[in-house]
TrEMBL record:
This is Prephenate dehydrogenase. It comes from the Bacteria. Residues 290-357 form the ACT domain. It comes from Streptomyces coryli. One of its GO terms (biological process) is tyrosine biosynthetic process. InterPro entries: 6-PGluconate_DH-like_C_sf, ACT-like_dom_sf, ACT_dom, NAD(P)-bd_dom_sf, PDH_C, PDH_N, Preph/Arog_dehydrog, Prephen_DH. Keywords: Amino-acid biosynthesis, Aromatic amino acid biosynthesis, NAD, Oxidoreductase, Tyrosine biosynthesis. Residues 2-285 form the Prephenate/arogenate dehydrogenase domain.
């Protein structure tokens, strides 16, 4: 691929443009907000101008409600040989494009399974998609050349291609992406008017659960409006579990031992579900050993820990940082392969780090 046009320079569009530009593709940027396109260009994502002629691939990175309209307009203008969108739902935009008279042979719907609670070009990174699934939803009439262009894009972004039916994709993301956003927001909403004393007790658990509740509401209204049925289906199942759990807790409150079974059931089913969540780079979940390091809130602390781990020849598989409430200190949890934990523990202690079990 030598040329591409990215239409929409938010987080996803700019991240794609950065990845392509970093691998030698001439990228052109288009956005209704000219300032946003200029910002993306200033970051090195490409040129905020129109190409001289048709490019090889047009990437439409706009909200789902506008994807079909943008695709149809781009096809009518003949700006590219192939067209993809990266909206987080796939069935609706494909049907809308077909109804608008769009050409399904030159189009393939895609969805990179990566993102952030932050939005806009300033949140973009060239490695956003590295190792992440990137769903492709070709139709029976999708041209092979267009499919190959989409696969090349995925490879240039160093993502992992996954081919799915569009409607099956929408049901899947309702479960693994859209419902978690709403559940996170529901939990975070309990904190809005909570007593300050309770809020000060927030630890890593509540931070983990509510992290994505910081996402832009306008963006999520667009996404949820494009996939309301499947999300409602999943939430109805969650609501049934919540109702059963409430009844079990009320039974426990009344000293009825029968409530234990209900609570244990949902906890054990949660264990079983969590075990199925892929681990690092989409591989099967791993049982890592956790080495906890006490760190102070000073410049360079995190870098020193990583450097010392590197000198010990230990690869850090994952990391989590928990700040101590009201203190300029925290705990850094380093997740490593079990066989590497003793060497890392010894090396960090030798270099003066305070560790906790």
């Amino acid at each position: 691929m030598r040329t591409a046009l990215v239409i929409g320079t938010g987080l996803i569009g700019t991240s794609i443009a950065l990845a392509l530009a970093g691998r030698g593709v001439q990228v052109y940027l288009r956005d209704e907000d000219a300032d946003q396109a200029r910002t993306a260009a200033a970051l090195g994502a490409g040129a905020d101008k129109e190409p001289d002629g048709p490019v090889e691939l047009a990437v439409v990175a706009v909200p789902p409600a506008y994807a079909a309209e943008a695709l149809a307009a781009a096809q009518r203008a003949g700006v590219a040989r192939g067209y993809i969108d990266v909206a987080s739902v796939k069935g609706g935009p494909r049907r809308a494009l077909e109804e608008a008279g769009g050409d399904l042979t030159s189009y393939i719907g895609t969805h990179p399974m990566a993102g952030s609670e932050r939005s806009g070009p300033l949140a973009a990174t060239a490695d956003l998609f590295e190792g992440r699934p990137w769903v492709l939803t070709p139709t029976p009439v999708t041209d092979t050349e267009v499919l190959n262009l989409a696969l090349e894009l995925v490879a240039l972004c160093r993502a992992v291609p996954v081919v799915m039916d569009a409607d099956a994709h929408d049901r899947a993301v309702a479960l693994v992406s859209h419902t978690p956003q709403l559940v996170s927001s529901l939990v975070a909403a309990r904190l809005q008017h909570a007593d300050e004393t309770a809020v000060r007790l927030c630890g890593q658990g509540i931070r983990d659960v509510t992290r994505i509740a910081a996402s832009d509401p306008a963006m999520w209204i667009d996404i949820l409006s494009a996939n309301p049925g499947p999300v409602a289906d999943v939430l109805s199942e969650v609501a049934a579990d919540l109702d059963g759990t409430v009844k079990a807790l009320r039974a426990l409150e009344a000293a009825d031992a029968a409530g234990t079974a209900g609570v244990e059931d949902v906890l054990r089913r949660g264990n079983a579900g969590r075990d199925r969540v892929p681990g690092k780079h989409g591989a099967a979940p791993a049982e890592y050993e956790i080495v906890t390091v006490l760190i102070s809130d000073e410049p360079g602390q995190l870098g020193r820990v990583f450097a010392d781990a590197g000198r010990a020849g230990v690869n850090i598989e994952d990391v989590r940082i928990e700040h101590a409430t009201g203190q300029q200190a925290g705990r850094m949890q380093l997740m490593v392969e079990p066989q590497a934990a003793p060497a890392l523990t010894a090396a960090l202690r030798e270099r003066g780090w305070a560790l906790r079990q």
